[in-house]
Amino acid sequence: MKLNIVDKFRKQLPADPVLENIRRQVSGACFSYVTPNAEISPKLLHVSPELLSNLGLTQEDAKTEAFLNFVTGKHVLKDTKPYAMCYGGHQFGNWAGQLGDGRAINLCEVEHDAKNWALQLKGAGETPYSRSADGLAVLRSSIREYLCSEAMYHLGVPTTRALSIALSGNEVLRDVMYNGNAAYEKGAIVCRAAASFLRFGNYQILAAQGDVTTLKTLVDYTITNHFSHLAPTSKQTYLTFFEAVAKRTLKMIIHWQRVGFVHGVMNTDNMSILGLTIDYGPYGWLEGYDNGWTPNTTDNAHKRYRYGNQGNIGLWNLLQLANALYLLIEEPEPLEAILMAYKTNYDTAHLEMMCSKLGLANRQNEDEDLVKNLEEVLHLTETDMTLFFRNLSHFKKEMLEVEGLKIIKEAFYNEKDVVDTIKTRWLEWFKAYKIRLAKETQTHDVRAREMNLVNPKYVLRNYMAQLAIEDAEHNNYKLLDELYTMLKTPYSDNPKYEKWYAKRPEWARHKVGCSMLSCSS
Ligand code: AMP
Ligand code: MG
What we know:
Distance between the termini: 31 Å
Order of helices and strands: HEEHHHEEEEEHEEHHHEEHHHHHHHHH
Number of helices: 17
Strand content: 5-15%
Helix content: 40-55%
Low-confidence stretches: none
Bound molecules: adenosine monophosphate, magnesium ion
């Protein structure tokens, strides 16, 4: 097993001088050295063939004990020095102070094919940032991260990736719904990969400490290594950097809205500086199209991180990052201008994205109303987002409105509801859509093909991950592999997977792990 280790992050940034693995407040540093827990008997469950080749590894490498020991932290590779990153964050709108990698340990950074890959274990033991927790992860949350991050990648959504998932061989105590019912679960370790795992919170913590020197070092490092087209660094570059982060954040969230992904915990410590979807916790996928939905039971009262609010939260989080970068820029107006631009750019990008889902190529005045009306009718009765948009590509402008309704009817969870006003509203919408389609120049076949490239056929529905988890808890990993494979081609019709192109089954409606998830992981 040969990796081209570069380790820029730990070599170029200031390290915490304390080497003892005790919980502490860290200052003047971007990370702390820490060794993963070696007291494990790991078992590999799944490896990503693409990630292997991205890293310059082979399928044969993945079969070795050295690989297993590497991706679980049992053995630390020579010349590497694992570390946990220091960051803070706003959690649910409040500044929470130092958080940091409490159960993530960075192994090293690898360069292959001119790409940088930071490799990070999740669940490999405690770190100086573990606070009152154990630094471990359970099988269920690890399967959710492993499957979903790869599914997102193949959907074309910017995301961190996953190289492997393994059992640690240890048991982990968790109280899934925080209701006094703690129980032991299987421990697991995911080895995840990204160009960088830096978050908004990495910059915020330094600003909160008033450590402008280290903040500048970290921002310069980020620009040089990850936004290199912007160098050399200056105040103007910092602004352009912030603008680039705002654009990437916006792009990522628009993709989430397109595929119906709800992150669930958009705290600023879970916002990647590279605009990657990061930290797969109590996320969920829309089944019924619902702007008010969040899978995260911890957020039930305010639904701060609901589907329809993700764009606003992106802006709120960017404002917190702007506050941190202000220490280097010292002028509020240009930062405010970038935040204002996010607002208008978001609305434009959202409309563009929704129009692409409807197969509308050239903007027309009525598009905004058409999309707004559609969002309204989608909320009248529970309507499956994935089935609705995918089936819609069968609608042709020559068809009658009632035929349109027939095409999408399997998306309704209660077809019987589609009578009276609801039916009238749908027929009206199809009428407007027909009129609008008449202004399109491309043929139906071309439009349908384009729609099918933005409206996925298969997503990781909440209950699907749960089924794979339940099987894996009984040592059966077939479904994990089946879903993994299916989600590699989410836009292609595949008769083999037809059973996964269906509404959520009724048993999953209120089940823990499907519709209800907590931060316990
Ligand atoms: P999250 O809500 O998963 O993004 O985590 C928020 C913070 O809590 C981060 O600093 C995590 O590293 C930390 N954390 C979450 N779970 C654990 C755990 N089991 N052990 C230690 N730290 C944790
Ligand atoms: Mg996190």
